[in-house]
Amino acid sequence: MYNLFLIVGIHKKESLNLVKNTTSYALHFSDSSEVSLPEKIIIMRIETELKLDYKDVLFRPKRSVLQSREEVDLTRKFTFKNSQQVWEGVPIMASNMDTVGTVEMAKALAQHKIITCLHKFYPIDLLLPLFETTAAEFTAVSCGIKDDDINYLAKVHAAIPKFKFICLDVANGYTQRFASVVAKLRDIYPDKVIIAGNVVTGEMVEELILRGADIVKVGIGSGSVCTTRIQTGVGYPQLSAVIECSDAAHGVGGQIIADGGCVVPGDVAKAFGGGADFVMLGGMLAGHEQSDGELQTINGEQYKVFYGMSSETAMNKYYGEVAGYRSSEGKTVSVKYRGDVNNTIKSILGGIRSTCTYIGARTLKDVSKCTTFIRVSQQSNEVFGKNS
Ligand code: 5GP
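That is the input. Now the predicted structure with guanosine-5'-monophosphate docked in place:
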């Protein structure tokens, strides 16, 4: 049953409900009157419940017995539903974007037990040395759903049979073909941890997990260099997507990744507070020594180029053109050079630890249980400039 606000051919200005009987539809008005409708009436469905982004909420602080941030444990241990693989680490991930999901990033982040999803364009010989190290436990191999992608994955598997994570990534995880590829990969790789996305609604999260995914990547249109919402009008506020999708995933024994939209360490904590099992970062890890992208000097300051994987820059780089039937859904920006990513990671982990002490969560797993969000109209005081 949906609240309807626009019904073609009906001139009654009030909220009303559509009820489907076995043979017809009827509109129920708030004054108890009722109008029967022909079977083929055109209706506009609008979900009116407010959906939220990270910036729309803050954590409510709570009394806590924790003495110090040092007491907080940010590691989690998962046994994944379909692969039955066990993994332990800090459940943050570098995005499989070619500027962020690099071998150098994987080496640095593995020291913190953080996962890097390598981008899907790596030649296999450049991957081999990485998987000889302990970083293998914290590295995912990425691919798409085209035949070439599946063949690439098979070649990686032949060369590096022990890799643990497959990150199956498409912009639109709602196609039937995507769900079929998830099922096919589960058959071929029964013991690999399959990450699949992106989607933003509970029913598709459930479908992907039931088809064989272990972890579903959640986020459409929330990324820092994403223009999907502009180009297509499609999207879902990220915090609400995380809250709804984590509930759906946990109901069927799976996990989710909150992918995209984190701008500051507090957003990463909010994603965990909303129920995310993992949080994936692109822009927050861009512009570092370990990131890829051309280094530029503008007005004496150093920058690194960062771009979306559906941007013109990425499509020209990997496919030689933007195919005639599609448009770019990503942008290209210059990010201030931020040096060693280890400093950024320390700041993010320090921020989350501090969140935990404010809300009384001794472990990362406890964060969502200890979370009460308050809706706000202003996240921080920016009188002296933007806080980042
Ligand atoms: P960020 O952490 O930068 O806000 O978001 C990173 C996420 O944005 C990525 O993990 C990916 O899901 C998404 N993304 C990356 N490139 C593009 C793009 O070109 N277009 C869109 N729509 N999303 C992108």
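Residues 95, 97, 171, 198, 219, 223-226, 228, 259-262, 280-284, 308-311, 329-330 surround guanosine-5'-monophosphate (CB under 6 Å).
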